[in-house]
Amino acid sequence: QKEVEQNSGPLSVPEGAIASLNCTYSDRVSQSFFWYRQYSGKSPELIMSIYSNGDKEDGRFTAQLNKASQYVSLLIRDSQPSDSATYLCAVSLKPYNNNDMRFGAGTRLTVKP
Amino acid sequence: EAGVAQSPRYKIIEKRQSVAFWCNPISGHATLYWYQQILGQGPKLLIQFQNNGVVDDSQLPKDRFSAERLKGVDSTLKIQPAKLEDSAVYLCASSLEYSGVGNTIYFGEGSWLTVV
């Protein structure tokens, strides 16, 4: 079983729709969770971090964490073509710490105009 | 503010040859990371430095990979001898602190290695 699993996609949504990206993790004691965006041929960049159960909103992005079910999700509202990228979920065993992140393989999102 | 600088950007070598990648982190960043990202996979941490000391190298294939961080600033990652499965993007990253909320890791553009 992979430590961090994501649906590879591609996930295709129309412009203006909500894109929902999901991630599950295997280690129950995981403490810190991150979503990165990676454009083709570019390096990953941090979108959101979340450390406690519930929702965390930042602009058009909402991260949701459910530690009991061992999943974390990212919602992108009002999706734009510029959101087309691969979204990487990363998980760390340490609280408030991104040093030992384990990444999923990513979900490729395409937003169609 | 200048980002994480890496060179070379692209390298093609034959198997069993050696290669070295250089990284200059963001000024003042104490923590430096090397990640390996194989096509279609997420990044995998190879080694982490705190200043010039190694914090974590548990996933570094030490029989062929080595890394050092000179004077706690620049870093070099070496592969010798290279294997076909080493074909990947090698991402250098840095962060201001070792941990803590808001301690963002910034990635460089990566060094693309193809082993033929």
Which terms summarize this structure?
heterodimer, A: 113 residues, mainly beta, six-stranded mixed sheet, five-stranded antiparallel sheet, 11 strands, B: 116 residues, seven-stranded mixed sheet, four-stranded antiparallel sheet, globular
What shape does the CA trace of chain A take?
globular
Number of helices of chain A: 0
Most extensive contact: A-B, 22 and 23 residues
Average of per-residue pLDDT values of chain A: 93
Taking pLDDT < 50 over at least 5 consecutive residues as the criterion, the unreliable ranges of chain A are none
Question: Care to describe what's here?
Answer:
The complex is a heterodimer of chains A (113) and B (116). Chain A is mainly beta. Chain A has strands spanning 4-6, 11-14, 19-25, 32-38, 45-50, 54-58, 61-66, 71-76, 85-92, 102-103, 107-112. In chain B, 0% of the residues lie in helices and 48% in strands. In chain B, a hairpin with a 2-residue loop joins strand 5 (44-50) and strand 6. The radius of gyration of chain B is 13 Å and the shape is globular.
Could you outline the blueprint of secondary structure elements for this entry?
The complex is a heterodimer of chains A (113) and B (116).
Chain A: E1 4-6, E2 11-14, E3 19-25, E4 32-38, E5 45-50, E6 54-58, E7 61-66, E8 71-76, E9 85-92, E10 102-103, E11 107-112
Parallel strand pairs in A: 2-11
Antiparallel strand pairs in A: 1-3, 3-8, 4-5, 4-9, 6-7, 7-8, 9-10, 9-11
Chain B: E1 5-7, E2 10-13, E3 19-24, E4 31-37, E5 44-50, E6 53-56, E7 65-69, E8 75-79, E9 88-95, E10 106-107, E11 111-115
Parallel strand pairs in B: 2-11
Antiparallel strand pairs in B: 1-3, 3-8, 4-5, 4-9, 5-6, 7-8, 9-10, 9-11
